[in-house]
């Protein structure tokens, strides 16, 4: 009975090669332009569409994580929220670069002109660049503090 209620099914969606409207893989012809649909090509296009959708979703998660990192950083300065801010920010300080690298390794080979994917790629670039700048800022600060002779017992 559990097999009847899966979130993913054998039917997937893809853009019609003729009119670019979204149709599903179970169709023999497009309902919008009546173009015949090759089942093998439809399955391949549906898999590519699913991968593009997942890339956009993962890039959205990266943006959310970056926003949460800023929120955790600010909450470190409030008395009753400081521990939550410290722990959350420390986690995201590691998770954001790891997830950004994962995004690039997993989705860099996708070739498409889909505007949503272009935006997702841009978002992943901004989040990755921001994480890199932050890392450089922290490392530079620690080197300067060490060079000035201060002891550092940081987090």
UniProtKB/TrEMBL annotation:
Entry keywords, A to Z: Membrane, Transmembrane, Transmembrane helix
UniProt key word Transmembrane helix: yes
Transmembrane regions listed in the UniProt entry: 61-78, 84-105, 126-145
Top-level division of the source organism's lineage: Bacteria
Claim: Membrane is one of the keywords in the record: yes
Protein name: Uncharacterized protein
């Amino acid at each position: 009975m559990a097999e009847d209620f899966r979130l993913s099914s054998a039917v997937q969606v893809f853009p019609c090669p003729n009119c670019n409207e979204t149709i599903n893989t179970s169709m023999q012809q497009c309902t919008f332009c009546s173009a015949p649909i090759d089942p093998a090509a439809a399955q391949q296009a549906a898999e590519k569409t699913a991968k593009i959708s997942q890339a956009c979703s993962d890039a959205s998660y990266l943006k959310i994580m970056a926003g949460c990192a800023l929120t955790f950083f600010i909450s470190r300065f409030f008395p009753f929220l400081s521990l939550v801010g410290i722990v959350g920010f420390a986690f995201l300080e590691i998770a954001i670069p790891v997830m950004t690298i994962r995004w690039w390794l997993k989705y860099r080979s996708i070739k498409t002109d889909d505007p949503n994917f272009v935006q997702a790629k841009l978002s992943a670039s901004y989040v990755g660049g921001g994480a890199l700048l932050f890392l450089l800022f922290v490392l530079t600060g620690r080197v300067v503090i060490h060079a000035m002779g201060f002891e550092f017992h940081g987090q």
